[in-house]
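FW: tagging you since you asked about this chain on Friday. Here's the raw sequence from the shared folder, copied in full. Didn't touch anything.
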Amino acid sequence: MSDSTATVLDVHEKPGAALWGLLSLQHLFAMFGATVLVPLLTGLNPSVALVTSGLGTLLFIALTKGRIPAYLGSSFAFIAPILAAAALPGPDGQPLGPTGAMLGAFLAGAVYLVVALCIKGFGVGWLLRLLPPVVTGPVIVVIGLGLAPVAVSMASNDPATSAYSGTHFLIAAATLVLALAFSVVMRGIFAVVPILLAILGGYVIAAFAGLVPWSGEAGMQAKLAAASFVEFPAFAVPFVTYDLPWQHFATIVLLLVPVAIVTIAEHIGDQIVISRVIGRNTLEDPGLHRSLAGDGLATMLAAILGGPPNTTYGENVGVLAITRVFSVYVIGGAAVIAVLLGFLGDFRVALQSIPVPVIGGVAIALFGVIAASGLRTMIEGKVDLGDKRNLFIVSIILVLGIGGAVVHVGTIAQLSGTALAAIVGVILNAVLPYNGGNSE
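HL: got it, structure written out here
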């Protein structure tokens, strides 16, 4: 093995204290921008998202016997369903808000446990046949493109008036340019944390443009003075801080639970990549059933505390590949730091002061990357669109997913376009004959 591919720290090796902290911070930076962006987009609490991300990662490490160096952060796949669930009317006629989606997120996590039990009993072959690239690829494209209007609106509209604002658009464009520059042009640590650096740069530009007021009652000085250095995050616990929206149970289930089809497929893909990077087959040892259970329980824990659903992060897998540091102690250290950051009041104020166009600028890049990763899934899966069977499956998934934001099911429930596309894709793949209509 050459030096460029030599392992620096293996999975069970523990670094020295100083190096440990630096390596963990690197993973924290890698996941930070995306993990915080999801709650900012959906109206959830960013501090809670950091805490649930860290706790979920520690839970995942424990359930996988410390053999998979994976970090769990906020899942982008659930953004649109959370927004749809948040808009449902509550008993007082007002929108439920994002906590209304927590019931569905909890049940989506439970789906992972059911699948994990089935894998333990029957193996993984049936799941791979159920979710081939011809289904998962276009559904991932739908997730990215379905969020495109959200990103463009945040990047170009003034939140106070919902009208187009040239200033907001220019700030979003500058933030997007920074994200591209750090990702494509820069090297080293800059290329590892491009989203975080782009948000910081966009924040500074927005401050000079007057979108981050410093003085006055609503200014940063007053908000920082009112915040405590150590502050308990505003956890949203069912039956404690809010009542579960049972009146919309069917709708919330149909909006969020089917998304687990996609995130489970993403989880399998991440485990395959991690296996290649660390040189061990994690699907066999400790087993895909354990990693899925860890991911599902992390999402259920997040839902109980009011955080977004979790998923394994490709950004952190990229850090593993670049640094050749596979230590689960480093991943665990990043998780502990994330939990601690969630309890810092000043840090919460800084997060919540990020202007909307800055988030919109990075969202354009990230949502596009999601869509592109769906295309990559089909390419790497060698999906032949010259085959009419594959062509129709992909086409129908794309149209249903992108064209229908919400589909009514009877009179009591709604199904998001993404969920409908995923379900129809699975059914079409199961019933359509192979090579149908194609004569050799």
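FW: The longest strand covers residues 406-409.
HL: agreed, and The mean pLDDT is 86.
FW: great, closing this out.
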